[in-house]
Design brief:
This protein has helices spanning 19-36, 50-57, 62-67, 86-95, 140-156, 175-186, 195-203, 214-219, 232-247, 292-295, 310-320, 337-352, 366-375, 386-391, 412-420, and strands at residues 40-41, 47-49, 70-72, 78-81, 105-114, 126-135, 162-168, 253-254, 266-274, 282-288, 303-309, 330-334, 357-359, 380-384, 393-398, 404-408. Strand 3 and strand 4 form a beta hairpin. The mean pLDDT is 95. The two termini are 52 Å apart. The protein is built from 15 helices and 16 strands. The strands form 3 sheets. An 8-stranded mixed sheet has the order 1-5-6-11-10-9-7-8. The longest helix has 18 residues, at 19-36. Helix 1 packs across helix 11 and helix 5 packs parallel to helix 9. It is of the alpha+beta class and 421 residues long. Bound molecules: adenosine-5'-triphosphate and magnesium ion. Adenosine-5'-triphosphate binds next to strand 6, strand 10, strand 11 and helix 11.
Length: 421
């Protein structure tokens, strides 16, 4: 035999029980909260033409420069695994003429994203996002609504110690002047800035504010604030957003350094961070992108969205919130061949009613079957042997408090349904 060993690719993980229950919980809560805000699910493909991403995310971003999984397919087309969701949703919005439907159109998506990053805690090459996009409303009311929706989502999950960082990075009108200020500010420090930031200096100086290299962080002391350079339209929009957040009771921190890593943002950007994670502390992020639909060939359509990072949210849940995983409703401990046949039927009937029933192996001793029920943390154990079949009455035991009793065969479903509701 060869000693070949198969391993998941670096940065890609298997999500297994019991963690999977936390994933399902996050998904269920998100779906519920998003639905009550009128967001509906869409499922774009995981692969798109490469230019769907390069044009929208921006040629000079980390994602496009270094992180995309790009391939040539058998038809000689350049295709890429999606590194994020917004570009696909916008491509779909324009292609399927969703702008002809009444505004605003509100969507959410959930699924895997792919970025060729250096894997580390909280950073993977395949990771999952749940994201939302709202099209056709440029009012800061929509920004507040979307941010508050994210707040409710995290609150419903029990995640309280999070910070909502908000910022406005201006628009096509006011950002060029701010870029000029940055160019002036960093001009004398190019020798100190990292090589990436040197490139950013000429391609997109805003991105220097996002750099995580220590000496670049130091260089940013006293850097002009984007919020001091906003035009009056952006200023009013941002001030209104902040007042709406106050109205809705969302606590926030204005963070003028937070510019986000994608080119398509205009005006509002936001990021939710947690103290209870390591270096990768952003659990969700988003912003407004009022020009992107037009860039994709659609009509001018303002839009805003965010994406939550599933792995980091699940990690937070694990670290900070107590949770109970599902366990069997009943374990049928079986003695003898007749009972083995009959208990198959009972288990099958219970399962048909939506109860989780585990079946013991009549070849094992009652004691070992009880041990197994214990290991599975089954809520109840029923014992089924020849005597029980004859009398039609079963012994039950509740494992959490060792209470026990007897019950007629015909009442099993009722009994379990009542105790599990
Ligand atoms: P970061 O600064 O952590 O790299 P980002 O700005 O690249 O984040 P976005 O593109 O805005 O992140 O994605 C939104 C969220 O998706 C992030 O806040 C994070 O929770 C999650 N995320 C992004 N990249 C990864 C990754 N490689 N692995 C796991 N989660 C990720
Ligand atoms: Mg990143």
């Amino acid at each position: 035999m060869s000693s070949l060993q198969y391993k998941a690719l670096k940065g890609m993980q298997d999500i297994l029980p019991p963690d999977i229950y936390l994933w399902q919980k996050v998904e269920a809560v998100a779906r519920e909260v998003f639905s009550s805000y009128g967001f509906q699910e869409i499922r774009p493909p995981v692969v798109e033409s490469t230019n769907v991403f390069t044009r929208s995310i921006g040629e000079n971003t980390d994602i496009v420069e270094k992180e995309m999984y790009t391939f040539t397919d058998k038809g000689d087309r350049s295709i890429s695994l999606r590194p994020e969701g917004t570009a696909s949703v916008v491509r779909c919005y324009v292609e399927k003429n969703l702008h002809t439907l009444p505004s605003p159109q509100k969507f959410y998506y959930a699924g895997p994203m792919f970025r060729y990053e250096r894997p580390q805690s909280g950073r993977f090459r395949q990771f999952y996002q749940i994201g939302v996009e709202a099209f056709g409303d440029d009012s800061p009311r929509m920004d507040a609504e979307v941010i508050s929706m994210l707040r409710h989502c995290l609150e419903r999950l029990g995640l309280k110690e999070v910070t909502f960082n908000v910022n406005s990075i201006g628009c096509a009108e006011c950002r060029p002047a701010y870029k000029e200020k940055l160019i002036e500010f960093f001009a004398g420090g190019l020798d100190t800035l990292c090589p990436d930031c040197n490139r950013r200096y000429s391609s997109n100086p805003l991105r220097i504010l996002d750099c995580k290299v220590e000496r670049c962080k130091d260089m940013r002391q006293g850097v002009p604030k984007v919020t001091d350079s906003l035009c009056s339209g952006c200023r009013t929009h941002f001030d209104s957003l902040l007042s709406f957040l106050e109205l809705l009771g969302v606590s926030y921190t204005v963070n003028p350094d937070m510019v986000r890593g994608l080119d398509y943002y205009t005006r509002t950007t936001f990021e939710v961070t947690s103290e209870n994670l390591g270096a990768q502390n952003a659990v969700a992020a988003g912003g407004r992108y009022d020009r992107l639909v037009k860039e994709f060939g659609g009509p001018e359509t303002p839009a805003i969205g965010f994406a939550m990072g599933m792995e980091r949210i699940v990690e937070l849940l694990k670290n900070t919130v107590a949770h109970a995983f599902p366990t069997p409703d009943v374990f049928l401990a079986v003695i003898g061949d007749m009972a083995a046949r009959e208990s198959m039927v009972i288990a099958d009937r219970l399962r048909g009613k939506g109860l989780w029933a585990e079946l013991g192996d009549s070849g094992n001793s009652l004691k070992s079957q009880m041990r197994k029920a214990d290991r599975l943390s089954s809520k109840y154990v029923f014992i089924i042997g020849d005597d029980e079949l004859k009398s039609g009455r079963l012994k039950w035991k509740k494992l959490s408090d060792s209470s026990h009793g007897e019950i007629s065969m015909f009442e099993i479903t009722d009994f379990l349904q009542k105790s599990s509701s």
